[in-house]
Amino acid sequence: MEKHVVMDWSGVRSQDYKILLFSIPAFTLYTLLLNAVCSIGEAVITGLLFLVVQLAVGMTTTRMYYRFGNIAKERLSLLDPSTLSNGWRIEERDIHSVEVSRIFEKFYKSIKDADKKSTDDINDIAWFFIAVWSMFSTLVAVTLELFSPFCIISSGVLMSISFFNYYEGRKGRNNGYFEDDIGHLEYHVLSRLEGIAALHPGAQSYVSWKIRNGTAVLNDFFVSIDLELSEKTVVKYYLGLPSKECERITIETSVTKEKVRTAISDTVGLDFSELEENRFEIRNSESNLDLRYRSSYVRTPQKPVVLFEMIKKVLKIISQ
After folding, report:
1. Which residues have a Cβ under 8 Å from the Cβ of 54 and sit 6 or more positions away?
2. What's the CA gap between 185 and 178, in Å, rounded?
3. Residue 311 burial (C-beta neighbours within 10 Å; 0-12, 13-18, 19+)
4. Based on C-alpha coordinates, what's the Rg of the chain?
5. b vs e for 44-66, b when ≥16 Cβ sit within 10 Å of the residue's Cβ?
6. Confidence of residue 20 (pLDDT cuts 50, 70, 90)
7. Which pTM value belongs to this model?
8. Do 165 and 73 meet the contact criterion of CB atoms below 8 Å apart?
């Protein structure tokens, strides 16, 4: 049984690498700053500056890293099959409405697993540790008149707390109403599959997967209508879930394609193209569904009336 992959973590991991690269010089500079403070010489003045610098930089940095974690998490999205590299095979399986709902149940589960709740008041907790460590390290350094070791240790402490804050910000619920958005997408899919399938008794819904090494990624849904005519005639409606593919109708028939071209000539937003002999396509050029961007499918739910009517016209033309 394949492992279904739903979420795209590439944007989050990219942010992780950027923060790591940013942190190396940032904490190196902080260590040098503390060394400069510790080299002043006068214990009381050095201790006061050592305390102030640790508190000011520490509280600012930990809060900043928490926000960096938020930004990373905001880059979490559903996986767009168009972004996958080569080497994936397409597998098509017939499907019913109940099975579509099961697919989306896995979406919900993956989202819940990815969208964990962060620790409450994490910044307050981080600031508490920063304050305690700053006062403790300053007190010991002034008492022993030994600042240099604490410069390096304090930089390491701040780095550890900052990365912890980043982790908490990264796992927090920062995606708004992600589950509600998936509900819109599920409605988007089901309304189209059921609406198109209801146009002809010979209609069958399918799901296509991209599969490689036991991993399956949702590719698209489509409805195939096999017409019982003298020659093979198949009409297929694709939702166009991959960002590089439009919502479209493909038609395989020996009927004169000019009849279909004429039928759509007055419809804005539909493009006609010939794929091969006796096979052509009608594309909805205005569809812009992209699973990575929720705004592309979170809309006022409505059925694709234009394409419904177009399929009706096509079926009527072919059946004549």
Report:
1. 34, 130, 133, 134, 137, 138, 154, 158
2. 11
3. buried
4. 29
5. eebbebbbebbbebbbebbbebb
6. very high
7. 0.81
8. no
